[in-house]
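[retry 2/3] Transposase InsH N-terminal domain-containing protein: previous attempt timed out, resubmitting with same input.
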Amino acid sequence: MRFIECQDRAQASLLPPSIEDYIARYAMVRLVDVFGDSLQLSELGFHHRVAAATGRPGFRPGDMLRVYVWGYLNQVRSSQHLERACVRDLEAIWLMRCLGPDYRTIAAFRDDNPEAIVRAPRSWSSAGRRA
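[retry 2/3] Transposase InsH N-terminal domain-containing protein: success.
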């Protein structure tokens, strides 16, 4: 009996596929990306923790908001599950541009910006009505 043969995992590829190729043209994750780009985050009250001079720079608030909204839409609300999604799920990898925040960073973003997170969708929907 014959079976469909798969590609050898160790096989090198001349032109590896782009992550962009795996995301459908009208996928919800693309709307989440546009949502994150369209907001004036500083006006909404988003801020991030400033690292010490010897510390690692932080993530952009827009990127953190994107992963939070994506998680909400996909019923992934735990910071630890969002951390795993950023390295396992192609949509999350695409959305975060291959960045992988840890769960403490995601949880700190939620704790630091609760009012701004609530205001973000409201401001986007009101901007859509004005257009």
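[retry 2/3] Transposase InsH N-terminal domain-containing protein: The chain has a mean pLDDT of 86.
[retry 2/3] clearing retry counter.
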